[in-house]
Design brief:
The protein is an alpha/beta fold. It folds into 2 domains: 1-30; 32-253, Glycosidases (TIM Barrel). It is 37% helix and 17% strand. It contains 8 helices and 8 strands, in the order αββαβααβαβαβαββα. An 8-stranded mixed barrel has the order 1-2-3-4-5-6-7-8, surrounded by 5 helices. Helix 6 links the parallel strand 5 (174-179) and strand 6 (197-203). Helix 4 packs parallel to helix 5. It is globular.
Length: 260
């Protein structure tokens, strides 16, 4: 009976320690060093202690350049990921890309949107290569600030084209989406594609962003990052998959382009 009492006591102690460690793990963010920068940060003096970052190659709109991209790649001690803005303003612009990569008729709105998204991604890939920016992780920024049609199916087609261009014209690159739940719903109809998600929380603290890591991703995929904003955009890694990808040996060779 005494031995059984000692065993029970040890089980209780171990369980309490496990619960305590579990609570500490929930409260402690996975990473405190991930920032994202783009054209608004061109005149910023970024602190030098950041090892990981995400850099925008476009200047707030698709087919527009972030002219300080090359400079911003030097800000991070370790590796970085890249992102580009997306959008689809409609068939009038889409008709400029009717013949590649798919052959579209003037009335096939989804085909036109796909080709537009494909061309916009190729533009971003060229910008990156010309600035010496290479990564095996690309994010597509999906926000209502950019132009979109009222058809969620057409908007989805444009994003499918954008993903396809990255996958076809880069080596070992992973693609994910940045958005909010509401904006993603408005633009895509809540498209569940299962790809990595980067959540813009609108929060002003790292703790709030860390709590958001326990929510369901807007696109049904794994939630890799949760963004908060202070003087500069910061991000909590909800999954070690993001940091592991950046630290992999192929990370700086991710975008070996066939379109250049």
């Amino acid at each position: 009976m005494k031995d059984r009492g000692k065993l029970t006591a040890w089980i209780i102690i171990v369980a309490l320690v496990g619960v305590t460690l579990g609570l500490l793990a929930v409260r402690k963010p996975v990473s405190q060093t991930i920032v994202d920068v783009s054209w608004p940060n061109c005149r910023s003096n970024l602190p030098t202690n950041f090892r990981e970052g995400i850099i925008g190659v476009t200047g707030g709109l698709d087919f527009h350049a972030n002219h300080c991209l090359g400079q911003e790649t030097t800000w991070f001690v370790g590796h970085y990921a890249l992102y580009m803005n997306t959008g689809y303003p409609g068939a009038t612009r889409g008709k400029k890309f009717m013949s590649s990569p798919r052959h579209c008729t003037v009335t096939d709105n989804q085909c036109l949107a796909y080709n537009y998204g494909f061309a916009a991604s190729e533009y971003g890939l060229r910008l990156a290569a010309n600035s010496g920016a290479y990564s095996n992780m690309w994010w597509l920024d999906v926000e209502t600030d950019n132009s979109w049609t009222t058809s969620t199916a057409v908007n989805q087609a444009s994003l499918m084209g954008a993903v396809a261009a990255i996958q076809q014209n880069s080596f070992l690159a992973k693609v994910g989406f940045y958005s909010t739940t509401d904006q993603w719903q408005e633009i895509t109809g809540g498209w569940k594609n299962g790809m990595p998600a980067w959540l813009a929380t609108g929060a002003a603290s790292e703790q709030s962003a860390a709590r958001a890591c326990s929510t369901t991703a807007f696109n049904g995929g794994p939630l890799w990052l949760s963004q908060y904003t202070t003087s500069i955009d910061g991000n909590v890694a909800c999954s070690p998959a993001f940091s592991e990808r950046l630290s992999s040996p192929d990370s700086v060779y991710g975008s070996v382009l066939s379109v250049i």
